[in-house]
Amino acid sequence: MEGILSSTPRLFYSCMDSNDVYSKNFTHSKTQSVAEDGFSLRAVSSYRGNGISHALRLSKKNERLESSDFSKRNSNTRPIDRLKRTVTLNSEVSPHRAVSAVRLLRIDQGGAFVDLLNHNGNHSVDNEMDYVERTLGFHTRALDDRDIRLVTEVVGGAVRWRRYLDHLILSLCRDENTFSDMEPLLLQILRIGFYEILKLEMPPYAVVDENVKLAKVALRPGAGNLVNGILRRLLRLKESNSLPLPKVEGDDRAKARALATIYSHPVWMVRRWTKHLGLEATVKLMKWNNSEPSFSLRANSSRGFTRNDLVERLNLLKVPHDISLHTDEFVRIKTGMQSIIQAGLLKDGLCSVQDESAGMVVSVVNPLPGDTIVDCCAAPGGKTLFMASCLKGQGTVSAIDINKGRLRIVKDTAKIHHVDDIVTTIHADLRDFAERSFLRADKVLLDAPCSGLGVLSKRADLRWNRRWEDLEQLKNLQDELLDAASLLVKPGGVLVYSTCSIDPAENEERVVAFLLRHQEFSVDPVNRYVPPEFVTEGGFFLSNPAKHFLDGSFAARLVRT
Ligand SMILES: C[S@@+](CC[C@H](N)C(=O)[O-])C[C@H]1O[C@@H](n2cnc3c(N)ncnc32)[C@H](O)[C@@H]1O
């Protein structure tokens, strides 16, 4: 500790401003404790008198390094265990806002994803508090269940609505520089405030007060004043129904830009969808992507746990649910995931979180007792485990994946699901494996890496991480993997190609191109396996989020003649 402190005070104190309440509040003991952790020194807010300057504005070059630093430190050394003794409690700041702001910051810097908070594991409440302490230099009172739900809602929503929120924040700033030079933490606080006012319709003056308080304590009084001014301007515009949003007019490009802002999506996606689906369906799709995601659970029959058993447990837990209309083992829920996690239903392998559309992909494979099956891109194993449970202890599933860590999840979960006697995991690049392997299976599933454009409602951050150019690269990979997977199909056997994309370039077009290269395969229409509303003209399975209110998925069933 000595070493770190003695090597760093110049950096720390040079960032201090004597007029800054934050600095004043930041007592020497706090200084020391934060300085113990190398990252925090860079991460705590600081203010130089020359205007906006902040240690949180990390250089692009350093972002990834520091983000991974976060998790590495957290999982291995846990310096915060030492910090807890000295970091002070700030009971005035609302915990869900402090946690949300820090989490949004980490997501922006590539150090976290948008996902549910748990009571344990990587995304545990304790971990989130550690990040708050290390980033803000104080901790808040503990998160209760309502706070946990709010963090999930606010973080997911602020990420989903980022383009829309930033457009409004920019419009309400005095000038463009105020926005472009804004400290990352301040931007997150504004996003939270805007989202709470515009989308969660929370009591507006409480939202203003709470976010101003957070900005003052976590940054400095000036930041609080800025938040106050901008949020109050927003309230006036909202009350007079005159939010500065673009009009959908002009040429296609201008319309796409306006829609992209109003519905918060990248422009390239809007342009692509309006071309393939038309304007109305594109708007429906974007609305679906922005809605609170619903989840499905699959009762795990390999544990002898039926859908009726699952329904009984959900009733006991008072989790509202609907029976799936499309797949036998599935139940749909909109809320209550925390209760399900806490009740241990997932940990004990009694059920899995799996979308019904993924269940229908397995229906297209039609796994039957005695089958030999290869799951070519298996991790983290959702479809592997469902297929294995369909085999009722007779047959084999070889689960291949290039990602060792994710494949370990398949292996571990297979044990918990009591199907480890029929599931074998193989760590390999499918392209190499298929060339040297003599394995020939009855059924081969290639659930290919894809853009994920069908699951944007569940993956709030994905829309911002995908670029148009990714599709080109993915198409080449999908072709190569299809060629490889086809080698593993025995004569008379079945190859199922699936994605969680709704883009024809990754779906129908890949299958058509494959059939041109492989005349030994032909399409087996899927109408025997899934309900008719999911069958395309070409005989493929397609779930359309805006039409079926499920994730978007595609599957083609190809038979080796
Ligand atoms: C869409 S995910 C599979 C999801 C999985 N089927 C499920 O239902 O849980 C695609 C997987 O392909 C794997 N992958 C990507 N390239 C691969 C390759 N060349 N060989 C084998 N696996 C690969 C990725 O690691 C990733 O786990």
UniProtKB/TrEMBL annotation:
GO terms for molecular function: RNA binding; RNA methyltransferase activity. It is found in: Cytoplasm. Residues 285-561 form the SAM-dependent MTase RsmB/NOP-type domain. SUPFAM superfamilies: NusB-like, S-adenosyl-L-methionine-dependent methyltransferases. S-adenosyl-L-methionine binds at residues 377-383, 401, 429, 447. Transmembrane segments: none annotated. Keywords: Cytoplasm, Methyltransferase, RNA-binding, rRNA processing, S-adenosyl-L-methionine, Transferase. Its main location: cytoplasm. One of its GO terms (biological process) is rRNA processing. One of its GO terms (cellular component) is cytoplasm. Belongs to the class I-like SAM-binding methyltransferase superfamily. RsmB/NOP family. NCBIfam families: PRK14902.1. This is SAM-dependent MTase RsmB/NOP-type domain-containing protein. It comes from Aristolochia fimbriata (White veined hardy Dutchman's pipe vine). The lineage of its organism: Eukaryota, Viridiplantae, Streptophyta, Embryophyta, Tracheophyta.
